[in-house]
Description:
The chain is an alpha/beta fold. It has a 7-stranded parallel sheet with strand order 7-6-5-8-9-10-11, with helices on both faces. A 4-stranded mixed sheet has the order 1-4-3-2. The protein has helices at 3-16, 41-45, 88-99, 111-118, 137-151, 174-202, 224-244, 268-278, 285-291, 301-312, and strands at residues 20-25, 33-34, 55-58, 61-67, 79-82, 103-108, 127-131, 156-159, 206-211, 249-256, 323-326. The protein is elongated and about 70 Å long. The protein binds nicotinamide-adenine-dinucleotide. Nicotinamide-adenine-dinucleotide (NAD) binds at residues 83-84, 86-90, 108-110, 113, 132-135, 160-163, 183, 187, 211, 213, 256, 258-259, 263-266.
Amino acid sequence: MDSLKLRSLCATIQQARPDLISQFSEQAITGATAVASLDAIAAALGAPGATVPKALEYQGMTVELAPCPPAEGPLAGQVALVSGAASGLGLGVARGLYAAGAMVCLTDIDGPGLDAVRAEFADPARICSAVVNVTNEESVIAGFDAAITRWGRVDAIACCAGIAPPFELVDFPLDKWRLALEINLTGYFLMGREAARIMKAQGHGGSMVLLSSKSGLEPSKANSAYNATKAGELHLARGWALELGRDGIRVNCIAPGNVFEGSKIWNPEYIAKAAAKKGIQPDEVIPYYNNLTAMNAEIKPEDIANAAVFLCSAAARRMTGQVLVVDAGQVWTR
Ligand SMILES: NC(=O)c1ccc[n+]([C@@H]2O[C@H](COP(=O)([O-])OP(=O)(O)OC[C@H]3O[C@@H](n4cnc5c(N)ncnc54)[C@H](O)[C@@H]3O)[C@@H](O)[C@H]2O)c1
């Protein structure tokens, strides 16, 4: 597949008919309408709502056209791509976007993890997955191509792939520092750059949600790389919001408090280090952190997902460059 050619074909279809999805096909389709140039596509497709040809054929590529699969919810008709979707908050956000009606492309470096969670999404017309390493440019491009091949568009992304190496400053290994910068900053950069390229070409706006952390607002101890990268993500989002606002592309952050359910960051070793840092037993860690919140309440992945759905929806159409803090009342800065 010629990625650039496919992307320009899909973007041209989106400019003419944002009510459609298109699926790339490697086989010739009987009755496909041949278009000689990208300029001829608008004429072949007509205005939104008009009947469309079953498929378009352009320079040896075939794209099947269809209305968006039926779904209820504020994100019906949107295609969303989520990084870090095999676990924790990424999976929670993917579940939320899907439940809100979106077609969701799950991506993660953990292929078996993706396979294990994919089965729970019931409607095959609204789910796909791709193994993506967010630190690798080709891999990120291929992940977006998976969504474009399947649905011909991308309307929203949620950047969730992140790590938190827990070391005191004096013991912090350089390779762990560098890895955190690579995943938490370069990974978000590559995801955002690819999404911006596609959304700008489509011409009907979009939404990016960057999962930062309360640690991006208020640092936590023995967490240098996490603090720095999570603060960096906030400013990435603000800069992109400025840069992409005229294209109708909104960029916002979520700063979650501590979320334990399903998180592999909060693995037994990390919990043991947190317990040692606080002078408590490992089984006291979750109640300890809950008690730091104004509400003395545990934050769940669905609480973060609700914020992501809101930020991707038309209800947030005039919000960009912002940080939604979902921490049951723990930090008071933004
Ligand atoms: N859990 C929390 O308390 C909490 C709080 C605030 C913010 N966050 C943020 O939420 C995000 C997810 O955290 P989590 O707790 O769910 O962690 P998690 O470890 O459960 O999930 C992270 C996912 O990212 C994937 N991943 C790691 N490296 C990758 C790479 N190079 N390419 C693609 N995928 C990769 C992992 O395979 C995993 O599935 C992070 O960005 C984190 O900073 C978490």
